[in-house]
């Protein structure tokens, strides 16, 4: 399967470099490139790419969160943020959306292609190791609430009912916590939550 990719980046040299490198991959087709948010959205609506590689700071955007949320609304499209911004405050804001990955521009092109393929297979979210290893990842209030529910033994459907959302959204939030905390699965996350004082695990009969 060929992955149809849209690149939205306002730095001309970076844009051309990405297009050249990624177009050389046999399973990736760069369907369009854009240097602004509006142009990128128009291409996305017309060409329906599988993945958008999206810079955070574009001259015609209204801010990182609104930009990412707008692109995340594109049907059947996975959004990979590709940014030079390593500030924890920006990372936390972006991770509250449905992005599939947050990669720094310092990542080698081999890592970018790997993540493109991984998100297409339904995996993620992915965060640049440099950001995760900084030790400054903050657990948001909503995530703390989720950890308390998991530590009490609640299932995805029960959590979704209480938070008035879908089990799939809860699953994505769990996946994000796994990435943040460098844990492998839901069981490890529950154990971490219990050990960290988020609640007592209730063993079902």
Helix content: 40-55%
Order of helices and strands: EHEHEHEHEHEHHHHH
Number of domain units: 2
Q: Main sheet, how many strands, which sense, barrel?
A: 6 strands, parallel
Number of H- or I-type helical stretches: 10
The CATH C-level class name of the largest domain: Alpha Beta
**What is the average per-residue confidence, as pLDDT, rounded to a whole number?**
87
Plain-language structure description:
The protein has 205 residues and is α/β, with parallel strands linked by helices. It folds into two domains: 3-132, Rossmann fold (3-Layer(aba) Sandwich), CATH 3.40.50; 141-195, Orthogonal Bundle (Arc Repressor Mutant, subunit A), CATH 1.10.10.10. It has ten helices and six strands. It has helices at residues 12-23, 37-47, 64-72, 88-95, 109-120, 129-132, 141-151, 156-163, 167-181, 186-195; strands at residues 3-8, 28-34, 51-54, 78-83, 101-104, 126-127. Helix 7 packs across helix 10 (186-195) and helix 8 (156-163) packs across helix 9 (167-181). The longest helix has 15 residues, at 167-181. The chain is elongated and about 50 Å long.
Question: Layout of helices and strands, plus pairs?
Answer:
Layout: E1 3-8, H1 12-23, E2 28-34, H2 37-47, E3 51-54, H3 64-72, E4 78-83, H4 88-95, E5 101-104, H5 109-120, E6 126-127, H6 129-132, H7 141-151, H8 156-163, H9 167-181, H10 186-195
Parallel strand pairs: 1-2, 1-3, 3-4, 4-5, 5-6
Short description:
The chain has 205 residues and is α/β, with parallel strands linked by helices.
């Amino acid at each position: 399967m060929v992955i149809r990719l849209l690149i939205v980046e306002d730095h001309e040299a970076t844009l051309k470099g990405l297009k050249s490198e990624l177009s050389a991959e046999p399973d990736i087709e760069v369907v369009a490139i854009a240097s602004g948010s509006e142009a990128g959205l128009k291409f996305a609506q017309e060409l329906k790419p599988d993945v958008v590689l999206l810079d955070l700071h574009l001259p015609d955007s209204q801010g990182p969160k609104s930009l990412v949320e707008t692109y995340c609304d594109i049907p059947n499209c996975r959004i990979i943020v590709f940014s030079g911004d390593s500030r924890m405050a920006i990372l936390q804001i972006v991770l509250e959306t449905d992005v599939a990955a947050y990669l720094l521009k310092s990542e080698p092109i081999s890592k970018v292609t790997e993540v493109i393929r991984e998100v297409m297979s339904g995996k993620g979210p992915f965060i640049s190791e440099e950001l995760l290893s900084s030790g400054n990842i903050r657990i948001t209030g909503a995530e703390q609430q989720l950890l308390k529910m998991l530590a009490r033994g609640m299932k995805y459907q029960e959590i979704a009912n209480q938070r008035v959302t879908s089990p799939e959204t809860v699953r994505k939030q769990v996946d994000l916590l796994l990435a943040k905390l460098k844990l492998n699965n839901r069981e490890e996350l529950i154990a971490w939550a219990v050990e960290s004082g988020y609640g007592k695990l209730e063993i079902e009969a």
